[in-house]
Specification:
five-stranded mixed β-sheet; globular
């Protein structure tokens, strides 16, 4: 493989670092990478039209981000039953007429968590946001041995659907659906933001700092900016912080392996990204 064409489909992705990550990964493997940002509305297309363009336009694969990770599923062949259960995909590879779906948010979150907290179990966790990335993180929490998961989402049906999917693979996980994030934070050891609140263009935080005082750790799926208000508040309250940048890094490393079949020197890639 001498060159590879990749892309990212999503909204609000002008500051995504995915193009750089994959170009740097390609440099390590002597593969020239073209990586395009593809925003359907800017192309005057539907998401499905942009996906079809990629499938027939010479792309090896694409990443999919907010708000399309669930929407992409009907167009994909999903070979992994776990990804089918998660119900969201962030990595797509084109093989002939097939579009194969994967979820490296799931594996990426677990790698990010373990890098910071090693083998310490998550404990009871409040997770705000039950969309595409939230589904992957929730399944990761189950795999990591979380004792309890409290779900908060403005769309109660989404939270209920996630709870049902989780129960199918983790019947012993205690799951509750809550209306009030501040109240649900009481007694939680982990606090997670899986909403777009806090990213560039969506300022703010989904949880008041006063609700964080007794927790132990916090994770924010947002990574642009890296230091969100949610994480800054958590750090000020003495919590161990897991940045969304870590999820971004590991999901990208895992996606690169799927796209190219190649591995990377993770330490070198991390250093190159941070210096660029």
């Amino acid at each position: 493989m001498k060159d590879i064409r990749l892309g990212l489909i999503g909204d609000n992705i002008s500051r995504s670092r995915s193009p750089l990550l994959h170009r740097l990964a390609g440099d390590q493997n002597n593969i020239a990478v073209t990586y395009d940002r593809l925003v359907p509305k800017d192309r005057n297309e539907t998401f499905q039209q942009t996906l079809a363009y990629c499938q027939t336009g010479g792309y090896r694969g694409i990443n999919v981000t907010y708000p399309y990770k669930e929407r992409v599923m009907p167009a994909l062949r999903i070979d992994d039953p776990l990804v089918r259960a998660i119900g969201a995909a962030n990595t797509v590879v084109f093989e002939g007429d097939a579009a194969l779906g994967h979820n490296t948010d799931y594996s990426g979150f677990m790698a990010a968590y373990q890098r910071v907290r090693q083998d310490v179990k998550p404990g009871p966790v409040l997770m705000i946001g039950a969309g595409g990335v939230g589904r992957a993180v929730a399944f990761g929490l189950a795999k990591l041995g979380a004792a309890e998961l409290r779900l908060v989402d403005r769309d109660t049906a989404k939270a209920q659907a996630l709870a049902k999917a989780l129960n199918s693979i983790a019947p012993d996980l205690q799951i509750s659906i809550c209306d009030d994030a501040s109240g649900a934070a009481d007694g939680a050891e982990g606090l997670i933001n899986c909403t777009p609140v806090g990213m560039v263009g969506y300022d703010g935080t989904p949880l008041p700092s006063t609700a964080m005082a007794n927790a132990k750790w916090a994770f924010d799926a947002v990574y642009t900016p890296v230091n969100t208000q949610f994480l800054n508040d958590a750090a000020a309250q003495g919590l161990t912080v897991i940045s969304g940048w870590e999820l971004f890094f590991f999901q990208g490393v895992h996606a690169w392996r799927i796209f190219s079949g190649q591995t990377v020197d993770e330490t070198r890639l991390r250093d190159d990204l941070l210096l660029s």
